[in-house]
Amino acid sequence: MAEVLGVAAKTLQRNLSKRLNARRYKKPKGKAISDVNKGVRTAYGEEHRGKTIIEWWQWVYFTDEVHFNSKELADKQEYELRVPGQSQRLKSIQEVQGAPLDVTVHVTAGISYNQKGIFEFYSDPAEPAAKGVYRPRKPRKSSVQTPEELATVREAWEVAQRGGGLDADIKIKGNSMTQKYYTKYILPKHIERLKALEAQYDHVFYLQEDGDPSHGTRSWNNLAAQAKRAAGISILPHPAQSPDLNPIEAIWQLIKQRLRGGNWQTVEEFKGAILREWRRITQQQIRSRISEMRWRCKEVVQLEGNRIRSSLW
Predict the structure, then answer these.
(1) 169 CB neighbour count, 10 Å cutoff
(2) What is the structure's pLDDT at 55?
(3) Cβ–Cβ under 8 Å, residues 256 and 68
(4) Which residue segments constitute the domains of the chain, with CATH numbers given?
(5) Are 57 and 51 in contact (CB under 8 A)?
(6) Beta strand 104-111 with 60-69: parallel, antiparallel or unpaired?
(7) Distance CA 276, CA 119 (A)
(8) pLDDT tens readout for residues 168-199
């Protein structure tokens, strides 16, 4: 660009910094969108580009699963302004300590234009091994737990005390979730929430899920699809490779930004921090992101299926 404008690169850099407060940022990385999925994304945009909040987007219940890693989030890069080559840089070196906790916590949640949906932890990791034999006490209510969340935790504790657990064929491995697990433990909560919204607003709501195999969106005759049909749930098909067309992805970004630089000692402490940040998310923040959907649909058509980016997400 500097060559096109006929100025030195440094001159252009200084002016952009001074006039627009432009800075150097790391480029985000992501898997390239396939040509097939670009076509599907464009078709989705064409179908929904003219729909408004009032007539359409306020009636969509957006869902997603997310994975929070404590070690990744504990790292927060700090920047300073100094003259290159000065010895001062060694005096202000950013010391990095090993993260005391390295676990991944899994969450499923939903949002809609007028209300938050469910927020559930699932398949919690074990606490880091301690010396000696440790038998956890019966869970007590924490300051961030609702009665329903406490009941769920206590039920899991009682199962563990009896030496029980999930059926072997529905256990979760790593970040993947089986369709049986989703259909038995998570989908019913989304369905319950959808039914409550429909009863409250006397209007059909549409469930949006991504293309994860556990959701059963890739075929007609599977456990998850059957459960949704049996419940009479209306579905909004979601194009593959399209986190930029699901507003709840923007909420995950916001929560992770707020968690960066944290220092957690236990799984429960980490979960408590995540839950607090979820509760700090306002309905207006959710509405602002859902309100972009009409523009995003127009933009994805204009960009022929390529990624969309705004100041919000």
Answers:
(1) 8
(2) 98
(3) yes
(4) 51-76+106-128+174-313 (3.30.420.10)
(5) yes
(6) antiparallel
(7) 11
(8) 445 566 677 999 999 999 999 999 999 999 99
Q: Do residues 221 and 267 make contact, with C-beta atoms less than 8 angstroms apart?
A: no
* Three-state DSSP state, 13: helix
What type of residue sits at position 37?
N
Laid out side by side, the sheet with 206-208 consists of 116-122, 104-111, 60-69, 206-208, 234-235
Residue 124, C-beta contacts closer than 8 angstroms, at least 6 positions apart: 105, 106, 156, 267, 271
Degrees, nearest 5: CA angle 215-284-113: 40
CB of 310 within 8 A of CB of 292? yes
- CA 148 to chain CA centroid, Å, is 22
pLDDT band of residue 75 (cuts 50, 70, 90) is confident
Task: Answer whether 67's CB lies under 8 Å from 106's CB.
Answer: yes
Local structure of residue 244 (DSSP, 8 states): G
Distant-in-sequence, close-in-space partners of 275: CB < 8 Å, separation ≥ 6: 119, 144, 145
pLDDT, tens only, 289-302: 999 999 999 999 99
- Are 244 and 308 in contact by the 8 Å Cβ rule? The answer is yes
Range 132-139, long-range pairs (CB < 8 A, 24+ positions): 136/160
CB 64 within 8 A of CB 108: yes
Tokens of 174: 């790593």
pTM above 0.85, yes or no: no
- Give pLDDT tens digits for 19-39: 666 666 555 567 899 999 999
Name residues whose C-beta falls within 8 Å of residue 289's C-beta, 6 or more positions apart in sequence. Answer: 247, 250, 251, 312, 313
Vertex 108 angle, CA 102 and 113, to 5°:
130
**Contact present, 267 and 68 (Cβ < 8 Å):** no
Listing DSSP states for 70-86 in one string gives HHHHH---------TT-
